[in-house]
Write a structure and sequence with these properties.
The chain is an alpha+beta fold. Helices cover 33% and strands 25% of the residues. The strands form 2 sheets. The protein has an 8-stranded mixed sheet with strand order 1-2-4-3-10-9-8-7, sandwiched between helices. Strands 5-6 form a two-stranded antiparallel ribbon. A hairpin with a 2-residue loop joins strand 1 and strand 2. Helix 4 packs across helix 6 and helix 4 runs antiparallel to helix 9. The longest helix is centred in the middle third of the chain and has 12 residues. It is globular, with a radius of gyration of 18 Å.
Length: 273
């Protein structure tokens, strides 16, 4: 058994149960970790955390019921959206400058024309809405099916279906999608998948690399925030997804530091020397 699961299970009492679930055509072992629920409790938030060990075909889950619940992806959809934009030639490459439209924005950093590489780093909504208009609903529907992304549903508004629905995806599905992207196994050009990997790379330490993207949907009540990505350790791929219910901007800012606490508790990130 890989070190992750051998060392991070403190006792039989701290694990609710282990059972098998069907994921696509593969059987993935699901290991529930109620002991890690304390990280959510200490932060005073409700959420779920999922880690997929691709090589071992095992899911580590905190709050299993929520892990299977589909929620609006918000700006985590920019990962898939970037790939779709490249595949449909809505953008020439990750460095093409895209106009933001000139209107005042709620985030000052969004009030600038910029490339997709720069836009994803600051989660620039108007830039990706411009790409969405270029792509169009029909091609989105085709590509959401091709990529097997969440419920594959767009509704009728091309500018916000990932922010306010009806597009929805679960934390489990996020990790499965990210696993295929990390290994360039999506039904898309390999060079385009490599570009998307590159533009969401966060940092590299001790030979391991962290890839991640945040998301925040203000549409539901409570609001939803995400932090999703994967850690790459040599040939080993460890996708993760965390989402939270939040009511205030202060709670929303917990998404990255709290997800990092889960990764640290599991000895995934930061990597050991």
């Amino acid at each position: 058994m890989p070190t992750l699961f051998r060392n991070s299970v403190p006792s039989a009492l701290s694990v609710a149960f282990v059972f098998w679930v069907t994921v696509g055509l593969q059987a993935a072992e699901r290991l529930e970790r109620p002991d890690l629920q304390q990280l959510f409790d200490r932060a005073g938030v409700t959420g779920t955390f999922v880690l997929l060990d691709v090589d071992a075909d095992r899911q580590l889950v905190v709050n299993a019921e929520r892990a299977d619940r589909r929620l609006y992806p918000a700006s985590t959809f920019k990962i898939a959206n970037s790939l779709i934009a490249l595949e449909t030639m809505a953008v020439a490459d990750e460095n093409e400058i895209i106009p933001f439209g000139g209107k005042p924005q709620p985030v000052k950093a969004w009030e600038s024309d910029m490339s997709m590489r720069d836009a994803i780093a600051v989660s620039n909504v108007p830039i990706y809405q411009e790409l969405a208009r270029r792509i169009g609903l029909e091609r989105y529907r085709q590509w959401l099916t091709t990529l097997e992304y969440g419920n594959r549903t767009t509704g009728d508004n091309v500018e916000n279906f990932w922010l306010v629905g009806p597009l929805a995806i679960s934390a489990i599905e996020q990790t499965e999608f990210l696993a295929r992207l990390a290994r360039q196994e999506l039904a898309a050009a390999t060079d385009h998948q490599l570009i998307v990997r590159d533009i969401i790379r966060v940092e590299t330490l001790n030979g391991s690399t962290l890839y991640a993207k945040s998301g925040w949907s203000t549409a539901p009540d409570p609001q939803i925030v995400w932090w999703v990505g994967w850690v790459e350790k040599g040939d080993r791929i460890l996708p993760f997804a965390m989402n939270l219910d939040v009511n205030t901007p202060a709670e929303a800012q917990l998404r990255e530091p709290l997800a990092r606490r889960f990764l640290e508790a599991l000895e995934i990130w930061p990597p050991a020397d």
